[in-house]
Amino acid sequence: MNALPCPAPAGALRARLQRREFVVAPGVYEMLGARIADRMDFAALYMTGYGVSASHLGLPDAGLAGYTDMQQRARTIAHGVGKPLIADADTGFGGLINIRHTVRGYEEAGVQAIQLEDQESPKKCGHTPNRRVVPLADAVRRIEVAVEARRSRDFLIIARTDARTALGLDEAIARGKAFAKAGADIVFVESPESEEEFRRIGGELAGEGAWLIANMVPTGRSPELSARRLEELGFALAIWPAVLMQSACAAMAAALASLAAEGTTAGSPVPRYDMQQLHLLVGFEDVWAFERRWAQ
């Protein structure tokens, strides 16, 4: 029996949203975390650009990971898990023709929703200072190009605005309305600064014809609200992009500190998978089954 998951069928994410099933998507950026998250009770996974830039390049999320880095990682994850994948695509990695190329490349890679931003290029993480956005007309044109570029309506366009931090919530909500009018399937107002701001976003954008997504980054610029509360406020999806990064880095630091201090991992207080668990996580069951059938 093949132990590896089958990729999610096209349109799986759209179908969940149409059924009004609230979607919680943890952030993933490499295959161990993606496989673990895939086996949990989540409706989708979210490929975080911060995580890919940090884990793949050892660099900050400041527009330094390019299209090839991100599209290839998206392909690997999308084809290695059974849940729909939402994927960060920054500002589209260039001008309008690059956005068209990015949309088609992500769709071909098996991603089910692509996130595009209105920041100036190079962009920055949405929970850092000094982010600047392009003029509204330019931001809308990006979304119009993305909507026209996709092959199937099952491939969802997420339009993110970072206008809240520099230009205020009114401008961010106005941009969200414009993005929905331009054809975005999902609108993403980045880094609201209070629960009341989340309430306003839900109240003013929920009727604009697009689903709403919230970004939960504990210790970031926004308060962390529960999935249940976000649903009450009018949101349809929520991502937790840093949950694995924050947890994994803390666990790795603790495990290595214990080894450095004791000269052994025996008795370490840090939880660890044993080798059998790792074998099963990466799919050795499939190798063993193949060998039983074909090895001489």
UniProtKB/TrEMBL annotation:
InterPro entries per the UniProt record, alphabetical: ICL/PEPM, Pyrv/PenolPyrv_kinase-like_dom, Pyrv_kinase-like_dom_sf
Record-linked SUPFAM superfamilies: Phosphoenolpyruvate/pyruvate domain
Entry keywords, A to Z: Lyase
A Pfam cross-reference name: PEP_mutase
Gene3D superfamilies: Phosphoenolpyruvate-binding domains (3.20.20.60)
GO molecular function, one term: lyase activity
Protein name per Swiss-Prot or TrEMBL: Isocitrate lyase/PEP mutase family protein
Lineage: Bacteria, Pseudomonadati, Pseudomonadota, Betaproteobacteria, Burkholderiales
